[in-house]
Amino acid sequence: MKMLYQGLMEFTEMKQLTPTVVNKLIERIEIHNNEKKHSHNNVKVDIYFTAVGLFDIPTEQQLINTMERVKQKKTEKST
């Protein structure tokens, strides 16, 4: 995690994605086969970050649930 943080701090002011940035922050990128659904082609792409691995972006509902748990814990601590 420390390695990722240091890499991110180094590139916080970057204006463009360069091969150097990609090589430093990303371990590998996996592109899966096409899936055709309802006349649309979907391609799943997994990005494995250095020192973190695969980072799965949470759904909107997962974010809402997490925020509710955080609020509940804050309420419990203040009472």
What does this molecule look like?
The protein is α+β, with helices and mostly antiparallel strands. It has one domain. A three-stranded antiparallel β-sheet has the order 1-2-3. β2 and β3 form a beta hairpin. The chain is flat and about 50 Å long. The mean pLDDT is 81.
Order of helices and strands: HHEEEH
What helical percentage do the residues reach?
40-55%
Number of domains: 1
Radius of gyration, CA atoms, in whole angstroms = 18 Å
Lateral strand order in the biggest sheet: 1-2-3
Mean of all residue-level pLDDT scores? 81
**DSSP strand content:** 25-35%
Largest sheet: 3 strands, antiparallel
How many strand units? Answer: 3
User: Structural class, from secondary structure content?
Assistant: alpha+beta
What is the tally of helical segments? 3
Uncertain stretches of 5 or more adjacent residues: none
What overall form do the CA principal axes indicate?
flat
User: N-to-C terminal Cα separation, in Å?
Assistant: 34 Å
Question: Which features does this protein show?
Answer:
three-stranded antiparallel sheet; single chain; 79 residues; 3 helices; alpha+beta
